[in-house]
Specification:
By secondary structure, the chain is mainly α. The protein has 2 domains: 72 residues, no CATH class; 220 residues, MetI-like (MetI-like fold). It has a two-stranded antiparallel sheet with strand order 1-2. It is globular and about 85 Å long. The model has no long low-confidence stretch (mean pLDDT 82).
């Protein structure tokens, strides 16, 4: 048992490392082929030639391409993401500050979407073809279709402007207390969670319907096992593979794809940081944040693969 699991982990780690290496080449290459002089774009058209040349030297723009790539990758390997020329601060410090907002937001959103979606998927699958199933899946379809930024504006109007229950935007910082920080993340988390919950509920329902047609489910029912037990203990566990896949993808999306929501609620998170870095052509920040997000996706996928093996031990042998 131990050897197949070790081989499973080793294979996934090697795939993850290869993915990071290829991603680093793609990210670095894309940044290099962008048109324009980064120093000129950062300092402006009226910058002095001496200042432009100094910035080019600091950015290493005169070094060979392979040298700059190896220096950058070598720094990433030891946790040195470089220094932002716009913020005059280490990139790793900027990322740490913004992660303090984006990571709790992503986790709260993921928890909300999971708590909503799995019971709705179970409820709908257990009532397949009935009115309740049609209503639940119709509501989920609306949730998929509605843009999250429009939903965010609606939430702001109802809960911040009209009812005045939560702030409309901004982030007070964790130094002011945990509850004020969480309170400022509630509306953004809901705006992110509900569309994701709609997707996850539909996937959960489809996976459960496929499992409910299996012979062992019919056998369990024939033995008189309670319907709730059949659904929760047998059907749901065997339907978790596609659900876990979507959960992993959703976490990566919630961490990386919050640019619009963070701008709507004026949150100083990773999405806002990368948006500002792109507009200011601060390439070292863009490269560092993108590689962090790629690494997050790789780690999340590894954890999902491990969850696969725990849910279905047969996968350890197959892989």
């Amino acid at each position: 048992m131990a050897f197949p699991m070790t081989a499973f982990l080793l294979k996934r780690l090697l795939i993850g490392l290869a993915t990071l290496l290829v991603a680093s080449m793609v990210v670095f290459g894309v940044m290099e082929v962008l048109p324009g002089d980064p120093a000129l774009l950062m300092l402006g058209m009226n910058a002095a030639p001496e200042a432009l040349e100094t910035l080019r030297q600091q950015m290493g723009l005169h070094d060979p391409l392979i040298v700059r790539y190896l220096d950058w990758v070598g720094g990433l390997a030891v946790g040195d993401f470089g220094r932002s020329y716009t913020y005059s601060s280490p990139v790793i410090d900027l990322i740490g500050e913004r992660l303090a907002v984006s990571l709790p937001l992503a986790l709260i959103s993921l928890a909300l979407s999971t708590v909503i979606a799995i019971p709705v998927g179970l409820f709908s699958a257990a009532r397949r073809g009935r009115l309740a199933d049609s209503i639940a899946m119709g509501t989920a379809q609306v949730g998929v279709a509605i843009p999250n930024f429009w939903f965010a504006l609606l939430l702001i109007y109802v809960f911040a402007v009209w009812l005045r229950l939560v702030p409309a935007g901004g982030f007070p910082g964790w130094a002011g207390g945990i509850w004020p920080g969480i309170k400022s993340l509630i509306l953004p988390a809901v705006a992110l969670a509900l569309p994701q919950a709609a997707i996850l509920a539909r996937v959960t329902r489809s996976a459960l319907l496929e499992v409910l047609g299996e012979d062992y489910i019919r056998t369990a029912r024939a033995k008189g096992m309670p319907r709730r037990t059949v659904l929760w203990r047998h059907a749901l566990r065997n339907a978790m593979i596609p659900v876990l896949t979507i959960l992993g993808l959703q976490f990566a999306f919630l961490l990386a794809g919050t640019i619009i929501i963070e701008n709507v609620f004026y949150l100083p998170g990773l999405g806002r940081l990368i948006f500002q870095a792109i507009t200011q052509r601060d390439l070292i920040v863009v490269e560092g944040v993108v590689m962090l997000l790629v690494a997050t996706v790789v780690v999340v996928n590894l954890l999902v693969d491990l969850a696969y093996a725990l849910v279905d031990p047969r996968l350890r042998v197959r892989t």
